[in-house]
Recover the amino acids of this structure.
């Protein structure tokens, strides 16, 4: 990138148009292979002086302030969305944990029924299958995935809160 673009923020085409020269003429000037016509040199000098003097012009400050407000609003919305997701994941974790507790109690009860002489093995097998299927749906892997999702949400919320306080 050339120094003029860094100073003015304008592309080669934009500078050439502003100075009233061909793009190739401007490019050659930037490379040091050619000089600019006097009128273009005066315009360039005026532009560079103005940019240097007004680096923090009111227009730039207003733009930056508005941009910052927009970003803050977007981050606040994202933070709200994350808080909702966090609440939902927490509920899901609690639901899985409760379901697993009930199912594990059911396994214990099933063990008790198996020890009885009047045990209906078909009914016991049906209950056992239901518990196994339900445990598969509410597996430790699913619980861990939800806890990981919760941690990711918390990390993102923490990061956003830090950025918003800067």
């Amino acid at each position: 990138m050339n120094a003029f673009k860094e100073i003015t923020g304008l592309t080669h085409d934009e500078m050439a148009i502003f100075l009233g020269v061909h793009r190739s003429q401007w490019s050659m000037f930037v490379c040091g292979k050619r000089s600019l016509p006097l009128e273009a040199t005066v315009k360039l000098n005026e532009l560079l002086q103005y940019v240097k003097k007004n680096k923090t012009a009111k227009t730039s400050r207003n733009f930056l302030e508005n941009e910052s407000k927009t970003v803050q609003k977007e981050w606040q919305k994202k933070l709200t969305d994350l808080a909702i997701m966090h609440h939902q994941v927490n509920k899901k974790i609690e639901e899985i944990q409760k379901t697993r507790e009930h199912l594990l109690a059911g396994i214990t009860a099933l063990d008790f029924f198996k020890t009885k002489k009047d045990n209906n093995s078909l009914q016991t097998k049906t209950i056992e299958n239901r518990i196994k299927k339900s445990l598969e749906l509410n597996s430790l892997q699913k619980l861990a995935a939800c806890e990981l999702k919760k941690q990711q949400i918390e990390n993102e919320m923490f990061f956003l809160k830090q950025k918003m306080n800067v």
